[in-house]
Hints:
α1 (29-39) runs antiparallel to α3 and α3 (56-66) packs across α4. This protein is mainly alpha-helical and 105 residues long. β1 and β2 form a beta hairpin. It has one domain (9-103). 23% of the residues are buried. A two-stranded antiparallel ribbon has the order 1-2. It is 57% helix and 10% strand. The chain has helices at residues 29-39, 42-50, 56-66, 75-103, and strands at 14-18, 21-25. The chain has 4 helices and 2 strands; from the N terminus they run ββαααα. The longest helix is centred in the last third of the chain and has 29 residues, at 75-103.
Amino acid sequence: MTHNISANSARGEAQFMIGDRAYIIRPSFAALVAAEDEIGSLFDFVDRAAAGKALMSEVIALFWHCLVDSHVMNRDRFSEALAAMGMVGLTPILRVILRQILQGQ
């Protein structure tokens, strides 16, 4: 069954698919604070990402904390699905989140 939801770009959201389900990443203040607690300074992360040096684990952690409705999937399964997408697949989503981090909400 396909779940039809879509990202709201005005909120800085990004959408991606895992299987037949759409997921939304929303970089809310609380989500970014939680991500920063795990991966360190978001500004340092942005610098690493811009230099092509962001770690997959950092990207996955950021996405996990920004995931809307994270209760629908456990973190291990989510991490495996994102790892299977690879950095090429994750980069467009990451760009949306990085832009939101830099621009603010």
